[in-house]
Amino acid sequence: MNLYLSPNGRIDQPTYWRGVITLFVISAVVSVLSAFVSPFLGLLGLVVVWPWIVLHVKRFHDADQTGWITIGMVVLAIILSTVLSFILPALFGVDAAALQAEMMRDMEDISSSNDPGAVLAASMEASKKVAQAQLLPSILSTAIVTGVIGFVMGLFKSTPGPNKYGPPPGMGPVDTFA
Questions:
Q1: Distances (CA, A) of 148 to 1, 110, 165
Q2: Which of 16, 50, 37, 53 lies closest to 135 in space, CA to CA?
Q3: Degrees to nearest 5, angle at CA 34 with 28 and 35
Q4: Are the CB atoms for 7 and 52 separated by under 8 Å?
Q5: Strand partners, 166
Q6: pTM across the whole model
C-alpha cells in the first residue's frame, strides 16, 4: 500500500509499471461502473489521482530527480487528454453535441412535469447514455496517455546505489555510521 500512498523513497521500472497497470485497470473499472451504474461513481476516479502522483514522484526519485517534475507530467497528461477528447470520439462515431442536444430536449420535456424526482431520474439516465457512448474513446484515451507518460518516464534511468532519496529498490536502508 505504501507504493500508492507515500511519495517517499524510490521504485524501479518494473514496480512502476505494475503500479501503472493496476491504476489503469482501476480507472477503467470506475469508468465502466460510472457509465452503466451511476454517473456519480465517476467521482471515485478522484481517489486514484494521489496514487498516480505518488508513483511518478517515486520514479523521479529513483532517477535522482525532484518529484516536482511530476507537475510537468500532469500538464502533459492534461494536454494530451484534451487533444484526444476531440479526436477519439469522432473516430468512434460519437457525436457529443448531438447527444447533449438530445439530452437537453429530454430535460425540457420532463421539467415541464414539475416532478423533481422525474427530472433527476431522467438526468441520470441521460448522463449514463452519454457516458456509455463515450466509454470506449475514454478508456482508449486513458491508455494512450498512460503509454505516452510511461514512455517519457522510461527515459529517466535509475541511479545505481543510494541517492538523496534513499537506497535503490530492494536494498535495505543505508547505515551512515558503518
A1: 25, 44, 25
A2: 37
A3: 90
A4: no
A5: 163
A6: 0.83
Nearest to 140 by CA among 104, 94, 71: 94
Place of cell 521500472: 13
pLDDT tens-digit map of 38-87: 888 888 889 999 999 999 999 999 999 999 999 999 999 999 999 999 99
User: How is residue 126 written as a grid cell?
Assistant: 441521460
- Helix ranges (DSSP H) in the chain: 2-5, 13-36, 49-62, 70-91, 96-111, 116-133, 135-154
Local structure of 74: helix, strand or coil: helix
DSSP assigned state of 104: H
Distance separating alpha carbons of residues 31 and 33, to the nearest angstrom: 6
Sequence-distant contacts of 113-118: CB under 8 A, at least 24 apart: none
